[in-house]
Design a protein that fits this description.
Blueprint lengths: L3 E6 L5 H11 L3 E7 L7 H6 L7 E2 L2 H8 L3 E4 L6 H8 L5 E5 L6 H14 L3 E4 L6 H11 L6 E10 L16 H6 L11 H16 L7 E7 L9 E8 L2 E9 L15 E6 L2 E6 L4 E6 L6 E4 L10 H11 L9 H20 L3 E2 L3
Parallel strand pairs: 1-2, 1-4, 2-3, 4-5, 5-6, 7-10
Antiparallel strand pairs: 7-11, 8-9, 8-15, 9-10, 11-12, 12-13, 13-14
């Protein structure tokens, strides 16, 4: 079968390297181009995947014209997501955007409209979607193991976005790095709330079966000297009750190395039980009325093509299938509604109705 051609546009987010690696390892995908206005940011990927000079670009239009990809991976700063989707869509290629969805609901709607006009797939990738623990929790919830869902409780983050590069290579950030990084600029969509809240609210929407909250309350902590927050707490009021979503840059350890306290992940409370699902853990803990003493259950083994984001997106393209679950724009849009409402609530310092 002919390989699908992919190009990676904009290396603002370090996850570009992780996603290109998955493309490089996929037998049905060929990397035909990488593009960033700063060639230095592409050096590691060019070396890692043995890309010839002819496949390295600094102009996205030239990359799209000459490389002719079937789909693109987009990793710009959050505030530029809509700009890049609108740039790419007229070329008639499918678009895979690394989280978060956008800097605002308005930008998210621009992205959805551009993809609809082009009649191409748009996927918003949330890496937590591919953790077997959370997939297992969603399956058990759907099977009615804990009854109707009442509450989602989410806490997640890491030591900070400058503590690691692609493939989780560790570095030690400096004050100068913070001053230069888009992650710490409000006009670029920086801050822990925009970086991590969409994870919780989008997967929370998935767990809630697409239901929306009616009211949102949020508070943020912005350390002295910074433009953006490093800690946020959001409470969303659903018909079934309250759900909480907490984001943190500054966890004691990174969850992929050693789970901090509080643990990063989700706790789901249903009418008839609870499920705790923590990032990277090999088991989830389930408590039910029939067996109130909580027990550990091994996580599901994710099978191709539903085991990683690139394999899944390639499957959707080849089979002509819609993108589903947290990656689907319709689901991610609800997550963005909650994010926008949380930003408004934190700014006004009061509860707000869900933004439409």
């Amino acid at each position: 079968m002919k390989k699908l051609k992919v190009a990676g546009l904009n290396f603002d987010h370090m996850h570009m390297g992780d996603l290109l690696r998955k493309c490089h390892e996929h037998p049905g995908v060929e990397i035909v181009g990488v593009c960033d206005e700063d060639p230095r940011r592409m050096r590691a990927a060019v070396a890692a995947f043995g890309l010839p000079r002819a496949r390295v670009f600094t102009d996205p239009h030239r990359c799209l014209r000459e490389a002719e990809p079937d789909f693109v991976i987009l990793c710009p700063a959050t505030a530029r997501h809509a700009e890049y989707v609108e740039l790419v869509a007229p070329y008639g290629v499918h678009m895979f955007v690394e989280k978060p969805f956008a800097a605002s609901l308005r930008d998210a709607d621009r992205m959805i409209a551009a993809a609809r006009r082009a009649r191409r797939l748009l996927a918003i990738n949330w890496p937590l979607r591919w953790y077997p623990c959370h997939v297992t929790a969603h399956r058990l919830l759907g099977e009615g193991r804990i009854g109707a869902l009442q509450e989602v409780h989410y806490y997640d983050g890491n030591r900070g976005p400058l503590w690691h590069l692609a493939d989780k290579v560790e570095v030690t950030p400096t004050a100068a790095m913070k001053r230069r990084s888009w992650f710490y600029r409000s006009d670029c969509g920086g801050g822990s709330l925009l970086d991590y809240l969409g994870y919780g609210t989008t997967l929370g929407t998935w767990f809630h079966g697409g239901r929306k909250p009616t009211e949102v309350t949020a508070v943020v902590d912005r350390p002295r000297g910074l433009e953006v927050d490093e800690h946020s707490v959001t409470v969303a009021r659903y018909a079934a009750g309250l759900s909480t979503f907490e984001t943190r840059w500054g966890t004691f350890t990174d969850p992929w190395t050693l789970q901090p306290q509080p643990r990063c992940g989700f706790v789901l409370k249903g009418e008839d039980g609870t499920i705790s699902s923590y990032d990277y853990e090999p088991t989830i803990r389930v408590q039910t009325r029939a067996k109130p003493r909580a027990r550990d259950i091994p996580v599901d083994r994710l099978r191709p093509p539903h085991h990683d984001p690139i394999a899944y997106f390639v499957h959707c393209i080849r089979e002509g299938l819609p993108v589903e679950g947290p990656l689907a724009p319709a689901v991610a849009r609800i997550g963005q509604q909650i994010v926008d409402s949380a930003m408004q609530s934190a700014r006004l310092r009061r509860s707000v109705r869900l933004m439409e």
